[in-house]
TrEMBL record:
Keywords from the named record: Cell membrane, Membrane, Protein transport, Translocation, Transmembrane, Transmembrane helix, Transport
The gene coding this protein: secF
Protein name per Swiss-Prot or TrEMBL: Protein-export membrane protein SecF
Record domain Protein export membrane protein SecD/SecF C-terminal: where: 121-306
UniProt feature, compositional bias: Basic residues: 364-375
Primary site of residence: membrane
Function: Part of the Sec protein translocase complex. Interacts with the SecYEG preprotein conducting channel. SecDF uses the proton motive force (PMF) to complete protein translocation after the ATP-dependent function of SecA.
Superkingdom to which the source organism belongs: Bacteria
Length: 375
């Protein structure tokens, strides 16, 4: 078995583990700090909306050795508006994609002619395409509608399949992931395109999947939690995170690898704009989703659950038992992460006596048989 597989088995059995729930205030503080930074960045800098949302023109040039900075300068001088230039390909075979927002058909023809002149190519080789803002607005409106319906259905399903506390925690984790992803776009200045919106909607499902895996384990292990006095709800919640930790990490890494390939190879080297837009939001969102499922969702469920009177009483009994065991110098069997099922036997159950089964004696069996050789 590999080292990672051995670690996963030990985590599942409870031989090792990290107290995620016990240190939840640290993770809450980190998440709050990141979220505030994202919101401030969004409020101060705003989003760099793509041409699909603003309207304008997109120009594609033939092969040219002109740099991106030079082409951007030429486009801004010709149009009088900000321009975004992407280099597609590499070397002398590279072509340029130039976006200029806020121009109409007449201005687009003028800009196309001036670009051809300054780039040293034929005017007919510079192709232009006008993009209206209405299309981007329709995409954005549909995305908001889809997001609202998705969140409502998710909360209803989780409340029915699990309980309302888990539904609330999953909802908070989803908002956390969206806020961080959008905030990074604002802080770094990444362009927001319809591909970005598609990527944002895609990460919601993945983030929810990872969270539900932990919730399912937690639900299974807390069925009869009030019938024992060895673990609190937070202990079992921590066990659920540890038992699924390697699975969550493996799933995240496997998901991030192809997305990273799309981002750095497809978008970086090949210059595929749509791939770059989708993969960038996916990459940031997948990482945020993995973080929230481990450090936010489950600890938040434990906080909400331990407000219940039953869980408060259970915690008091567990702590009293541990204190009593410590006073007698005993080693209490109170490990937060174990693999023993709950409610199967009482705490003071006597160990089973191992020995031969009681069997009725067979009459006459072996009686009168002398030892030694037969005569």
């Amino acid at each position: 078995m590999s080292k990672l597989g051995n670690l996963g088995a030990r985590l599942h059995r409870g031989e090792v583990g990290y107290d995620f729930v016990g240190n939840r205030k640290i993770w809450y503080g980190i998440s709050i700090l990141i979220t505030i930074t994202a919101i401030v960045g969004l409020a101060v800098r705003g989003l760099n909306m793509g041409i699909e949302f603003q309207g304008g023109a997109v120009f594609n040039t033939p092969k040219t050795s002109v740099s991106v900075a030079q082409a951007q300068e030429y486009a801004e001088e010709a149009s009088g508006h900000d321009a975004i230039v992407q280099k597609l390909g590499s070397g002398d075979d590279a072509t340029l994609r130039i976006q200029v927002a806020g121009i109409d058909t007449a201005e687009a023809d003028k800009v196309s002619a001036e670009l051809a002149n300054k780039l040293g190519v034929a005017e007919k080789d510079v192709t232009g395409e006008l993009v209206g803002p209405s299309w981007g607005e329709q995409i954005a409106n549909k995305a908001w509608q889809g997001l609202g319906i998705f969140l409502i259905l998710v909360v209803i399903y989780l409340a029915i399949a699990f309980e309302w506390r888990m539904a609330l925690a999953a909802f908070v984790a989803l908002i956390h992931d969206i806020t961080i992803t959008v905030g990074i776009y604002a802080l770094v200045g990444f362009e927001v395109t319809p591909g970005t919106v598609i990527g944002l909607l895609t990460i919601l499902g993945y983030s929810l999947y990872d969270t539900v895996v932990v919730f399912d384990s937690l639900k299974e292990q807390t069925k009869d939690i009030t019938k024992q006095t060895r673990w609190t709800y937070s202990d079992i919640a921590n066990r659920s995170i540890n038992s699924t930790l390697v699975r969550s990490v493996n799933t995240t890494v496997v998901a991030l690898l192809p997305v990273a390939g799309l981002l750095f190879i497809g978008g970086g080297f090949l210059g595929a704009g749509m791939l770059n837009d989708i993969s960038l939001s996916l990459f940031v969102g997948l990482a945020a989703g993995a973080y929230s499922s481990i450090f936010i969702a489950t600890p938040l469920v434990a906080d909400l659950k331990e407000r219940e009177p039953q869980m408060k009483a259970l915690k008091k009994r567990v702590l009293a038992k541990r204190a009593q065991a410590g006073a007698h110098g005993e080693s209490p069997d109170d490990a937060p992460v174990t693999d023993e099922p709950l409610g199967d036997e009482p705490d003071d159950a006597a160990p089973a006596v191992v020995g031969p089964r009681n069997q009725p004696a067979s009459r006459g069996r072996g009686r009168g048989r002398p030892s030694g050789k037969r005569r």
